[in-house]
Every structure is written in C-alpha cells, then in structure tokens.
Specification:
Elements lengths: L2 H5 L3 E5 L7 H10 L4 E5 L5 H11 L4 E5 L4 H10 L3 E3 L5 H9 L4 E2 L1 E2 L2 H9 L4 E4 L7 H12 L5 E4 L8 H5 L7 E3 L5 H5 L3 H17 L4
Parallel strand pairs: 1-2, 1-9, 2-3, 3-4, 4-5, 6-7, 7-8
Helix pairs in contact: 2-10, 3-4, 4-5
Length: 213
C-alpha cells in the first residue's frame, strides 16, 4: 500500500483498545467523523485481534499497528493484517523485520542522529515522538532545516491536541499528525462513539481549514 495515499487525510488516530469488541465500533465512529486511518497500539493483549476484526469488517479502514518494539511484534502485526507499523523509537531489528515483510514502517525519532540513522535504514516517513515533550513545532522546524531536502516526512505524535493541531499541519514536511485525543482510552471504554465521531469531525474540519503550502 502506498504510504502517501493513506496519509492524505493528514491524521492518524492512535488508539489503545482494551476490549476487542470495541475495535470495530471505534473504527466505525472514526469513519463517521471522516477519518479512515487508525493505529492500534500493541499495548494490550487484544491488539492483533482488534486489527484483524477491523480489517475484516471495514474494508475502507486503513489499519496500522503501533508500539512495535520487537521483530516479533512486526510479524504479529503483519499476520493480523496491519497495513503499516509505527514504532516509538528506532530499532534495527524492527526495521529489518519490516523490510523483510515489505511492511511500511514509521520509526520513532527525536534527534538529528536518529533521523540520519532512519534515512540510512531506508525510511522516509518518521514518527516524531514524543513531540510536545521535546519542543513540538519549534523543534520540528529546527530539524527540518538540515533534513528538508532529503524528502523526509514527519508524523509528529505525543501530547498533540485539537488546539495545537493546526500549527503542525501548516508545516509542509508534516505528512500527518498522530493523535489520541479524539479516541481517548476512557471514551473507548465508555463506548462514547458519538463523542468520538464529533471530536474526529472537528479535527478533520481543522485540517481542511489550514492552507496547504
């Protein structure tokens, strides 16, 4: 799957799903709000099953696997039907496993050295994490200075909210933003699908209103 095609909405919902029965209703709530891209984090026992259920029930959804820490995580994600993977950091083992499976990976970076290593490992779409903790928009703009000409694109994630979303979207080198505010763990646990749809719709309107450069 072409990475650019599923990042064109410029938002990835990062979700922790505690109960697999919530997976499909959550994805349906996001789609109702105008977003078809979800990253299911491998932080719960049911993550792989959640991915598999969404893929089977909702062909229009683009489903990724997050928090990939090991090569085994990559294999489990691919086996579950994930269409892309996200790692919080940069691991050669995870990178190699993803390349072997021809699996799109967004490795996590925060420093110039990590960006250089990620590029050497063959990745151009990088998760900038944890974004807000490490300087947010200003830090990202500073890093783009020496790397902008390489074709690298960033997916900032971590602490971003509806209020700070426009500042990130306005940066041309930001392919998409990863966010959990529209589907916080508590909202999923409470099955507040209407609220999730409303927050997602609001975020999509914010993105649509930001002038593209």
């Amino acid at each position: 799957m072409n990475v650019e095609s599923f990042l064109k909405q410029r938002l990835v919902c990062v979700a922790v799903i505690d109960k697999v029965d919530d997976a499909v209703p959550l994805a349906q709530a996001l789609i109702a709000g105008g977003l078809n891209c979800i990253e299911v984090t491998f932080r719960t026992a049911g993550a792989a099953e959640s991915i598999a259920r969404i893929r089977k029930a909702l062909p229009a959804a683009v489903v990724g696997a997050g928090t990939l820490l090991t090569a085994e995580n990559v294999k489990a994600a691919v086996d579950a039907g994930a269409q892309f993977g996200v790692s919080p950091g940069l691991s050669e083992a995870v990178s190699q496993a993803a390349h072997e499976k021809k699996f799109p990976l967004f490795p996590g970076v925060i420093t110039p050295t990590e960006i250089m290593t990620a590029l050497e490992l063959g990745w151009k779409h990088l998760k900038f994490f944890p974004s807000e903790t490490f300087g947010g928009v200003n830090a990202l703009k500073a890093l783009i200075g020496p790397f902008g000409h390489t074709g690298v694109k960033f997916i900032p994630t971590g602490g971003i909210t509806a209020a700070t979303l426009p500042n990130y979207i306005a940066i041309p080198q930001v392919a998409a933003v990863g966010g959990s505010w529209m589907a916080e763990r508590k909202l999923v646990a409470e099955k507040d699908w209407a609220k999730i749809t409303a927050l997602t719709s609001e975020a999509m309107k914010v993105i649509a209103a930001v002038p593209t450069k």
